[in-house]
Amino acid sequence: MNGPYDIAQLIDQMADELRQKVDIDDRTAMVGIHTGGVWIARALHTKLGIKEPLGALDISFYRDDFTRIGMNPQVKPSELPFTLDDRDIILVDDVLHTGRTIRAAMNELFDYGRPASIVLATLVERSGRELPIEANVVGLHMEPGPGEHVKLSGPEPLKLEIKTDA
What we know:
By secondary structure, this protein is of the alpha/beta class. The chain has four helices and seven strands. The strands form two sheets. The chain has a five-stranded parallel sheet. A two-stranded antiparallel ribbon has the order 6-7. The longest helix has 15 residues, at about 5-20.
């Protein structure tokens, strides 16, 4: 479980798999979820040669636990520099755990328009799903133990860490 992970190699693997699953053309756009998803999306966006600028979502206001956890002090504006209607969207996040972040991101995307399709790419998919959401492209599957969390730090260098509850 612990150990150095070659993030660049995982991103290369994800890019190869995305090329196989998505017909990348002028209708393709990529959106990263703040913060780690944007870091991964930047690298994938470049490798895949997507013409549209990279989009970024901050899903803080779309979380189903917003009223319970309160305002994130580092809320950033979402940036979608293209129309979503009839586009094939590659949605990128760093770690897929419960599925709640992805649900919130899709809710926000649909507030901006109606994409033709959404493909989900995550650097890490771990156990503990609470919603029936599954990534189409995964760099690494993990099974952390009780009280362990997967954290991506960065942006330079990108580094995966396993954190334990204190």
